[in-house]
Write a structure and sequence with these properties.
134 residues; mainly alpha; Four Helix Bundle (Hemerythrin (Met), subunit A)
Length: 134
């Protein structure tokens, strides 16, 4: 197993995390907005989710979608350029752990902690990019 496969394994796990978040957000959405809205054309727009925890799950998933492309690109750069290192693995580990902690921190509305965890996930991406910098 090459060291760059560790970053790819973490990418795989992050994709699974994204799918779990998608399912949770979808269940919260359909639970609040109803099955007819979820299966319909949604012409009337997106009514708010009534349950605050469900709404937070949906927003946490949207936040995941904002950072994931940058993480995936960083992993692919590490792999394509053959620049895997302890630093790139550490950056990937920081990202996934931060994203795992972000969901409960957001759903439970822990002040400041959620923002620090989000910043840690971005720091993980930056560490990976620094590892591939020529």
């Amino acid at each position: 197993m090459t060291s760059s496969s560790y970053e790819l394994q973490i990418l795989f796990c992050v994709v699974l995390l994204g799918l779990v978040q998608l399912v949770l957000a979808t269940l919260a959405s359909v639970g609040s907005r109803g099955l007819p809205w979820g299966t319909g054309p949604r012409d009337e727009g997106r009514p708010p989710i009534k349950n605050k925890y469900g709404a937070r799950l949906e927003r946490a998933y949207q936040n995941f979608l904002e950072t994931f492309p940058f993480f995936a690109a960083a992993v692919l750069l590490v792999f394509a350029w053959g620049r895997s290192s302890h630093e790139s693995v550490l950056g990937a580990q920081i990202y996934i752990w931060a994203r795992l902690l972000y969901v409960p921190a957001y759903v439970l509305a822990i002040p400041f902690t959620r923002t620090l965890i989000w910043a840690a996930s971005l720091a993980g991406i930056v560490v990976m990019l620094l590892a591939v910098w020529p």
